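User: Could you walk me through two proteins back to back? I'd like the raw sequence and the structure tokens for each, with a short line separating them so I can tell where one ends and the next begins.

Assistant: Of course. Protein one, sequence then structure:
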Amino acid sequence: IIADYTKLSSNTIQIQFPETNDNDEYMIIIKELQDIASAIRVTSCLLLPLIMNEDEDNLLAENTSDVLPLLSGMIQMYNRNDQRLYGFSFIELVDGLSKLMVRGRSHTFIDQNLVDLLLNLLENSAKNNDLLECVSNAILNASFDEKVQRFLDSDRAIRIITCAQNNSRSQLVQKNCEAILWTLNRIPHRHCSTISNSCQLQGHIMISYNRSVIAMCLKIRDRLKALHYSVWLDVDNINGGVLESMAQAVEDSSIVLICMNEQYKQSYYCRLEYATELRKPCIPCLMQPRFRPYGWLGIIKGAKLHVDFATLPFEEAFALLIREIEIIRRDIIVKNNCNATYDKTNPPFYHQHGDGFTSADSNYVDNDLNRKYPSCLEKTNVAMSWDVSEVKQWLERIELSHLETALIDVDGKLLCTLHKMKQSSADSYYKFLDKHFDRIQAAQMSDTLKFDYELECLFNSIE
């Protein structure tokens, strides 16, 4: 119903008789009704994006294409004055404009005058955070239009956006401006360092997902491609057998985005992708609100900084995603340059920086470097020859002696069997760890992560 109201025109109420002195009163009433019709139309357009989700962008664009020029004209006409139009303040009009600019679509009504007005507001509204947030969001949404990018490709525009990013006290304004500059990287000018076509990644970024979140994944794909990343998505690249194509896609990837929800956890194909990608750096992306990953998905999420597309605004989540991709990209470059030599100042890509360990001790990795026992260099045949007492000594060396009760009578051969279980059936492996480690009252999630890492090092599966 609201979508239908967005198409309501003031011509819905037409004057069928000539205007004379005798019918002045009727003319006034009819014009007031026409204004009411326009007010209903504008109100419906401002309400629509508040009740729709990301998957309904097409419907939003279809129903607001006519009213956007009207709204932008109202903003230019009532620039920051106290007058209300149809009951809306100036800030509310700017906020409505930003929400109605469906990202990734062309908006023919946006011209240089409107862009200059928004830039002036961004430059001269330092004390009004509410207005700055609305304006920066409007510029961000408009910046996906190539025509608008040309309007923004100027010394003045870059200076205003950069100053707003550096000087604003609002985190939202800072993030919006940062995202604008990222978007403008598509234009090769001297102000923003452009991303090369290959992004210095030998492989592509694979998006591993379940069909239930295809709309969001397509949006992520388009945004990554706009920044010149090479992206693999099965809807674009499946040729021949599904399993063979997926296996090849993982093999050729540099990074895998794991789009998590309940359907993904239960998907057979997604499990195969996970089993194949064990040596690939991955970025967990939450796609379902209040979803609590368990089993092998829970381990992945717990070990890495996840990107929450389910609850965060898209631009905020996408900015986090780009940050993680760039961290991994730099790690790959360092690893290649150092010929796979470990460098403490450039941790390998399977370690996320800072708060990447959401539930483990962040000091663990650095402490591991100082450990006398070089677990990652241990020979496989030596470990397999361990007896039960030597397994206990190994647990003491890696500071997990409190897990001994879960590994009673386990020798080196059984440890190797456990490692093979992970390679052949990761889901069963993590369920096995969950089941037995949960019985230990002192055990924490960090212990599971630490044990998993040390087991990989022990059998030389991490390069």
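----
Protein two, same layout:
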Amino acid sequence: MGTLNEFQAQAVVDGILEGYKNYLDERRQKKEELRVSAGYAFTKGNHIDDTIAKKLQGLIEENTLAKAGESWEYLQFTFSENGDTCLFIVKNVHRLNRTFQSSHKQSRYLVDLATINNSWIEELRTKQVKMDGITIQLQFFDFEEKENLEKLISRGAISKFYIVTYETDQVTKKVTKIELVAPDAQTRELHLIQNLTPYLATSRIVIEDEEYSVISNEGEFVGTDDYGYTAPAEEETGN
């Protein structure tokens, strides 16, 4: 089972925290500079992906820029462990708590990514408990990316697809949990592969309480352009 080594794991956690910190700083700056700045709420994922890429430099094989739809860009990270070539993306866990939809042929990019796991995940189902309360809408809509993915799958270039999920407290806005999970294309469940939460305690990245104040009183946002998801109003915006 491919998992992150301790250096990679710490780099991912540090990247999430530092990217989040950078995002909070940008939100503060834009609130001071602009009369209208709520649109910057949708940039958190960009900050986090970018910082993780910098932290992982020299620790993993590569990171690749990919597109979901016409305007949303994100990073795919690739690492090797025990003969497995593993691909992962980073997502806020609240963005994965969705109802599965597959009505559009070109809206199945993440479904296809998850099928990478079909050859081994059935055995995992019998050994592990799914993440409670998580149903994922495995939905993307970029046809060119789908074709590129099919080539990778057919060549066997990627053996496992993971998602690094992070969870923030709805009141304090602090990151409370980070996990490496495997999406199951057949059951739409997320299976825990590696708990990265302990690395929060060993991170040197500090976000002071006052830094969260810029978003502490915000209502939740509704997004429509994040990986093809339509976000319910009660859920959090961004990656």
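The CA atoms of residues 12 and 52 lie 6 Å apart.

Let me know if you want the two compared in more detail.
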